[in-house]
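Box 3.1 A note on notation
Throughout this textbook, protein chains are presented in two layers. The first layer is the amino acid sequence; the second is a token string describing backbone geometry. Keep the layers aligned when reading.
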Amino acid sequence: MAAPAAVLFPAPRPSGDDAVSVLPVLFVPEASQWLSASTGRIALDGYSWMQAVHWVAGCGLYQPRRHRSHGPRSFGPTTVRVAQELAQLSPCRPGIAYLVRRTGLSERSVEYHLGMLREAGLLSYIVKGTRVRGESAQASEFARMIPVEFDGALGVRTVQRDVDAPAYTRAVSGIAEAGRELMARLAKKAARKVRKPRSRTSSKASARGACKGAEQRVVAVVSDGTRCTPMQVGTSAVSSAGTTSFPPENKLASGETKSPTPKKSNGKTGGRRKLNLVGRRYQLARELIQELDWLRGCSVPRIAWVVRNVADAGWTVTDVKGWLHLRGEATRVRRGSGLLAVLLAGAETVLNTPEKRAGAIERWHGAQEAARLHRIEQVRAERERHDYGWDTPADTMLKHEMEHAFGQVKDAARRSTAPVLGPADDSPALTNSPLQISDRERNEMRAQARAQFAAGITDLITDTVAALGRDQADLIYGKDLVRRARQLNDFSRSSLTTYKTL
């Protein structure tokens, strides 16, 4: 005989009976919390799955304390809030840290509620997460399941379209008339978002009662027709306005009632919490690491331990720098925290008053000012020596030629002998000159001067002009080169020009 085209799960209800069946206790053992061992069916979307979640929360068939002695006592609004986060994931592979951040619960609470969803048959493992030392933790991947008890309670009919596929792939084919009203109420619950209940701070009892009332308002038992939620139509036996209490008029007249506006906390200054003893140590350590170069890269907790004594005495980073100036500075530092511990040993006993610390800071500032003035004088002297002084050329040949040329020029100046100018050159001819400079020497000196001029250096020509005069410099280097060198020198000395050597 050929196999039937469709298999119904669960068994077909008797003809003429459209009532919802009575359900047993809802619980899935740990060995059956895998997708391959599950008796439920996979939810096709998060909306239909949330209908099953709200049904489990309201039916009362699953009680966590029946199977363990710790953890939550019931399947309540917190579990529904965790389920809402899972319904939005595709694939459903949540990390514990992600759920902690989204729900505001602790890590242990998130683990409890995930276990409750698995025990209720709403989640099944596809891949179980691992935690191996030295490797990154892998999150578990779940399949969102609809328990078979849900289908039986609402009269949902399912069909297996592919006989070779697993049983958890069956699809919905219809629903009993008795379950349609309950399904509509579950649809309304699944459409709205369950939020964390707000607690009142008047007293512990009222806060506990408010949280309990919020839980009852958020998730109601769907099997009880007398209860209702804020989104549904219904009546309540107790009016919420009857719980409102007002203070007596005599207290209102005397002004003894407390203001509803919260007061500022005395422990906060400027909107920030006041630092305690340990906080001041860490604050001083961070400032020292930023201010002192030889402390860069040091651990903040280690430096906080080193400066604990001075921080407890009320020292600031300026006080510490003033004391380090008195102790002396090291040119080579191998371990910054160790050096700082040696330098600060006994500092709080030596500078034990604010006046002494202020004196140390004043001496440190005076030393800084003196060092600054000394650097200014050094730079000024270097510039004056570079601008007006004369440095002997490093080249031996050029030095010999310059000394010889200066000697010849000085002798010619003493004898007051005038040179004879040649008609073919722009510089005076040296043939009849008493300097007796050969053409080779003159060409080498001019080539050296041109090379320095091309590099922006005019010291050779300007020094010759300053020592021997303009006429003698024209005889040696030529009028055109001397004129251009003097123009460049005057341009570099202008206050409107910034001159930088690359």
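Residues 274-356 form one domain. Residues 143 and 300 are 46 Å apart (CA to CA).
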